[in-house]
UniProtKB/TrEMBL annotation:
Membrane-spanning ranges: none
Catalytic activity, as annotated: 2'-deoxyribonucleotide-(2'-deoxyribose 5'-phosphate)-2'-deoxyribonucleotide-DNA = a 3'-end 2'-deoxyribonucleotide-(2,3-dehydro-2,3-deoxyribose 5'-phosphate)-DNA + a 5'-end 5'-phospho-2'-deoxyribonucleoside-DNA + H(+)
InterPro entries for the chain: DNA_glyclase_Znf_dom_DNA_BS, FPG_cat, FPG_N, H2TH_FPG, Ribosomal_uS13-like_H2TH, Znf_DNA_glyclase/AP_lyase, Znf_FPG/IleRS
Protein name: DNA-(apurinic or apyrimidinic site) lyase
PANTHER family: ENDONUCLEASE 8
Keywords in alphabetical order: DNA damage, DNA repair, DNA-binding, Glycosidase, Hydrolase, Lyase, Metal-binding, Multifunctional enzyme, Zinc, Zinc-finger
Lineage: unclassified sequences, metagenomes, ecological metagenomes
EC code(s) of this entry: 4.2.99.18
Pfam families membership: Fapy_DNA_glyco, H2TH, zf-FPG_IleRS
Amino acid sequence: MPEGHTVHRIAQDHGRLLLGHALRVSSPQGRFSDEAKHLNGCVLTKLEAVGKHLFYVWDNGDIGHVHLGLFGKFRVAKGPEAPDPVGLVRMRLQSPVATIDLAGPTDCTIGTAADRARILARLGPDPLDPKARVDVAVGGIQRSKQAIGAILLDQKVLCGVGNVYRAEALFVTGIHPSRPGSALCDDEVHALWAAVVGMLRQGVKDNRIITVDRSELDMPRSGRFRRGEATYVYHRDRCLRCGTPIQTVELGGRPCYFCPTCQPR
């Protein structure tokens, strides 16, 4: 499932191609046909990312909602001509400069501002939101007796973090993933929040997940990461920093990677 940086990057990239245009909206697959007819010809006025959710605001007052889930993908074709659909395209958005196809999402619906508000009410603060309430995230973590590795995947506590960023943020802060959230001190939780914010922002900028500090690899600022060098512990055999064999623990239904040396319990 795409993590928050991917969804925010999608909003940025697609916004440049779609915003301010009266769009041709269709559903080659057919499952979004009624909604597409309703939106066809409307102007997209805002494209917003919150955690792993996308909201499309139209000039007729409707708000579209997309959650990619495990299998959802966008395909972008630049230029005025729309290519033939590839696969089961749920929604096609065509502007004068690009065609964007969506296939396989968990959710692709249209609703109202009230529907958007109900979705947002289920989500915790988004680390990529400059106005995010850090105190709300800190409180949500410290009130929970669950393992911090599970808490970080709970979108009700903070939204946008997935399996890679939780492992890497816990590593750089030296926190064992099995420690209860209620056992973390203020400094630890604030450091964890700062790590998540920094990593997600870098992910939006790079359009990929890179959590390793280049200075640790003696790499120039413009150098490219080789395979396996972009993360400290996630999906690695050994810790990039100390060489200790990586261990995993099942938390939140997913394996959480950690270094037992750098993250003592």
